[in-house]
Write a structure and sequence with these properties.
Structural class: alpha+beta
Helix content: 10-25%
Radius of gyration: 21 Å
Low-confidence stretches: 1-20
CATH class: Mainly Beta
Order of helices and strands: HEEEHEEEEHEEEH
Number of helices: 4
Strand order of the largest sheet: 1-2-7-3-6-5
CATH topology: Cathepsin D, subunit A, domain 1
CATH architecture: Beta Barrel
Shape: globular
Number of domains: 1
Length: about 190
Amino acid sequence: MVGMNLGRKRKSYNVLVVHGKANTTPTSMITFNERDMRYEPPRQDEPMVILVVTAEYKVERVLIDQGSSANILYWSNYKRLGLQPANLEACSGKLYGFAGEQVTIKGVIELETTFGERGHARTIPMLYTIIDVDASYNIIMGRPTLNKLGGVVSTLHLCIKYSVGQEVRRVWADHRVARRCYEDRLRIGS
């Protein structure tokens, strides 16, 4: 491009931008093996229940639900986090469950959410839908979370892996907490 006038340089550059290759960041291959098995193989099909940090609080009883199209933060936990109703962004409508049940949405809020511990942590902004129902979980994280995190779940290993550059990071489920949530859910449902 040496010797071209500025107008031609801009035009050439614009053509390159339009026809240029997509900017893709290479990521590490994510696989699971026996080293990822933190616990004995589960006797039952345990759900992925993890701990995250959001609104500067550690939040336990976070269910990873690959079938959910929304990230759910329950109203009772919203208040425990010290968040004010005025912080909610209006969102009219209903959330529909698997069996067709309807729940009114109180609003939505974006919160920084941290996955992992210490040097292996990753923080991303997550959009939560707030609903007011009884639940044994504090948060349900669905596909939007996994996609934004780039997370891959192995229910056999009770582990989520995600890439940060060339490094693979992990978050393990706590099968004891998962079992307590299941037992609590039976009490709530009865």
